[in-house]
Amino acid sequence: MMEPEQEIEQLREQVRFHLHRYHVLDDPEIADVEFDLLFDRLVELENANPDLVVPDSPTQRVGAEPSTEFDEVVHAIPMLSLDKCVSGDEIKAWQDRCVRILGEDILSYVCEPKIDGVAVSLLYEDGGLVRAATRGNGEVGEDITSNVRTIDQVPLRLLGVDVPRSIEIRGEIYMPLAGFHAYNARAMKSGEKTVVNPRNGAAGSLRQLDPGVTAQRPLSVFCYAMGRCSDDFRPRTHADVLEAFRKWGCCVNPRVEVVEGCEACIVYIERLAQERASLGYEIDGVVLKANDFSAQERLGSVTRKPRWAMAFKYPAEEVTTIITGVEFQVGRTGAITPVAKLDPVFVGGVTVSNATLHNMDEIARLGIRVGDAVIVHRAGDVIPQVVGVVESRRPAGARRIPIPRKCPACGTVLEKIGDEVVVRCPSGMTCVAQRKEAIEHFASRSGMDIEGLGDKLIDQLVDQELVKTPADLYQLRGEDLTELDRMGAKSSANLLESIRKSCDTTLARFIHALGIREVGEATAIALAERFGDLEPLMAATLDELTEVEDVGPIVAGNLRSFFDNSDNNEIVLALVAAGVCWPVTDGLVNVPCAGETWVLTGTLESMSRGEARTRLRNLGAKVAGSVSPNTTRVVAGPGAGAKLARAEVLEVPVLSETDFLAFLRNHEGA
C-alpha cells in the first residue's frame, strides 16, 4: 500500500497536469467527474495529514485571510513602460534608430498582442510561486500574492525538471470578455455594482483585501517576459523565454509571432486588427520587441524606457449617435440602474442601441441630455459605453434627464442610503419588479434549484397574481399552470414535481435563496455553520452576527433589517409551513471559542494556516486578518512581524505554536 506522502505527491502531480491541460491548453484529457475524484482524494489525504500540506499544493489556491493593506514590493529589475507609436512610419523610424545603433540591416522581432489588463510580477523559487506583485510605479509595486494564487491559469508550481532556481515571470492579468459579461449580468440582476470594463474589473479584483472575493472573479493571465533570473537559465532570445514558459505550464498568448523586419511587423499589426473583435479579450495594440537579447543589451534604455521595444496603439473606435431617452431598471435589491437608449449605431463590429449608465452620478458627470449627440466608445472595441457629449451639437430642445424620485415599477419614493452611489426602491417584494427578480433568485440553481421556472414563466405567474411571494410557489396547482402560455399538462406536472423536490434543501441554500442584500453563497454557508438552524439566526443580535466569518457591520445590519421586517417573517414562516426543511445541526453557539476573535501570524510548522483557521472556526472562533482591541488571542509562529508587535502594544494574549497545539488538544472534542 502506498504511503500517504507518496500518494499525495503523486496526486499533486496529476492534478497539476490536468489543471494545465484544462486552464492553459484548453484541452482536457479526462472528464470533470474524474478530475473531481482526484482532487477530492488529495483534499482527503491532506486533511488527514496536515503536516504534509505545502503552500504550492493545488488545494491551497484560496485560503489566505483578508488583509487590511498591501505590503510594498521593490522590483529587483524595474518594470519599465514602453514608448508608443500609432503609425507605420513611426515603426520604420524606430527600426532605423535601432539599425543605426546596432549596425545591422534587418532585425528579428517578437510581435505580441498588447493585452488591456494589469501588469504583474510572479516570483518563483525552486519552482514554487512565492510572491506576486503589481507593477506600481515601475520601481515599487504591491504584494498581491494571496489574490493571484486564486487564478487558475497561474501555476502555483512550475512543471518540468529544468526549472531555474529563481525566476521572475512577468505577465498581464486580464478579465476575459465572456467572464466580464457574465459577472456584470449577475451584478445587475442582484442590484450590485457593475464594472465599467474588463480592465477595471481585473484591477479591482486584484486589489480586493479578501482573496475569497478575488477567487470569485473571472481572471486569466498571459505571461510575456522574464525579470530577474538565476544563472541556471540563460536563453539567447525572447522567443526562447516564451517557449520555456509554455514548457513550464505558463499561459503564453498563442498569437505571439517572430517576424523579420518592420514591414512584417506592420503586416502583423494589420492582421491582428482584423481579428481583435473575435479574440475573446480586450487588446489596445501590439508590443514589438527585438528578439535577440544581445541586441536588447546593446540598444539599452533611455529615460526609463527600453530602446528595444515599442508599443503600437490601435486608434480607439468611437462613433457619434443620438441619445433618445433613458430608462430606469429595477434590480432584485431595489437598485435603480439608468440605461441609455440610442439611435442604433454600428461600432466595433456590433450594432449598439443602448448602454448602461451605471448610476445617477454618471449621468451628472457626463452632463447628458435627451437629444444630445453622444460619443459611443467601445472600450477595447468590445464594451460599448457613452464617454462624452458633443455639446456643440446640442439641439435647442435637448431635455435634462430627470432623476427619478419614485420607483418606475411601483411608484414608491426612492431612497439613497449612506455613501452608496445607487438609489433604491425600499418596497421589497411589494414592488412588482423586485418581486419577479426575487422569485427568480429564489428558484435559481444556487438557491432552491427549481428546474423549469424561468423568467418568462415567472412574469406570467406574477402578472396574473398567482404568485406574490416565493411561498406562493408551493401552493400552485396543476390547473393554475395549464392556463398559462406554453404550459401543458406534462410541463406543469414537471414543474410541480421540481417545486416539491426543492422542499428538501440545506439551511445555507435557503438563506441564500431569501435574497438578503450582501449575503452570497459563502456568507450563507458561514451563517448556517454558525447557527445550525433558522430560529437562532433570526434571533441573533448584531454582535452575534458580526462574530461570523465574512459578516461585518453592513451585512449584519442587512440581516437584522430583513428578519425585523414582518412581511419577510411571514414569507419565511409560510415557506416552512409549506414543507421546506433542512437538516438541523447544533451550530457553533455552545462551543469553547464562541464570540472570540483570533489572529494568526508568522509560519506554523505543524500545520498550514488553512488548517489552523478551520480548527479554530470549528471551535466557534472568528479568524481575522488584523489585530484590534477586539482580538481575543494571537497565534505567533516564526517570522511574525507587525501583527505580533501590535498585539504586544494592545496587550492581547499571544500563544506560541506549542501553546496553540496544547490549546487545541484541550478543547477539540470537549
Automatic annotation (TrEMBL):
The keyword NAD applies. Pfam families: BRCT (PF00533), DNA_ligase_aden (PF01653), DNA_ligase_ZBD (PF03119), HHH_2 (PF12826), HHH_5 (PF14520), OB_DNA_ligase (PF03120). Coiled coil: none annotated. Its cofactor is Mg(2+). InterPro entries: BRCT_dom (IPR001357), BRCT_dom_sf (IPR036420), DisA/LigA_HHH (IPR041663), DNA_ligase (IPR001679), DNA_ligase_AS (IPR018239), DNA_ligase_CS (IPR033136), DNAligase_adenylation (IPR013839), DNAligase_N (IPR013840). Keywords: DNA damage, DNA repair, DNA replication, Ligase, Magnesium, Metal-binding, NAD, Zinc. SMART domains: BRCT (SM00292), HhH1 (SM00278), LIGANc (SM00532). Residues 595-670 form the BRCT domain. GO terms for cellular component: cytosol. Its EC number is 6.5.1.2. It catalyses: NAD(+) + (deoxyribonucleotide)n-3'-hydroxyl + 5'-phospho-(deoxyribonucleotide)m = (deoxyribonucleotide)n+m + AMP + beta-nicotinamide D-nucleotide. CDD domains: BRCT_DNA_ligase_like (cd17748), LIGANc (cd00114). One of its GO terms (biological process) is DNA replication. One of its GO terms (molecular function) is DNA binding. PANTHER family: CHROMOSOME TRANSMISSION FIDELITY FACTOR 18 (PTHR23389), DNA LIGASE (PTHR23389:SF9). DNA ligase that catalyzes the formation of phosphodiester linkages between 5'-phosphoryl and 3'-hydroxyl groups in double-stranded DNA using NAD as a coenzyme and as the energy source for the reaction. It is essential for DNA replication and repair of damaged DNA. This is DNA ligase (NAD(+)). It comes from marine metagenome. The lineage of its organism: unclassified sequences, metagenomes, ecological metagenomes.
